[in-house]
Design goal:
By secondary structure, the protein is mainly α. It has two domains: about 60 residues, no CATH class; about 35 residues. The chain contains four helices and no strands. The protein is elongated.
Length: about 100
């Protein structure tokens, strides 16, 4: 068992861990071999924070790559346009109503 764990962990043992996806794959492999593993709460929080930052960065890059085609942006734009159109129609009705009263 120790040999399996060593083979899985050896490549990342000596330096800082920068590739979190690789780390998670190694953790899964250790667990699949039935090897005990403890991830401390502060390490788990750090991993979750970094993964969230990576997902946000990927989403931002996707939006910046083609902002007009990005669904959330286009749906937000159409909602804003619809709201503006409704406001304009409402304002026109009020103006027409006020001119009829005068």
């Amino acid at each position: 068992m120790a040999e399996k764990a060593d083979a899985i962990v050896r490549p990342i043992r000596e330096g800082p861990i920068t590739d979190l996806q690789d780390l998670l794959r190694r953790i899964r492999r250790l667990e699949a071999h039935g090897l005990g593993l403890t991830v401390y709460p502060d390490a788990e929080e750090y991993i979750q924070t970094r993964l969230t930052q990576q997902r946000i960065a990927a989403t931002v890059a996707d939006i910046r790559g083609d902002p007009k085609a990005h669904p959330p942006r286009s749906s937000l734009w159409s909602n804003q346009t619809s709201t503006s159109a409704r406001r304009s129609a409402s304002q026109m009705r009020r103006a027409a109503s006020a001119s009829c009263e005068a």
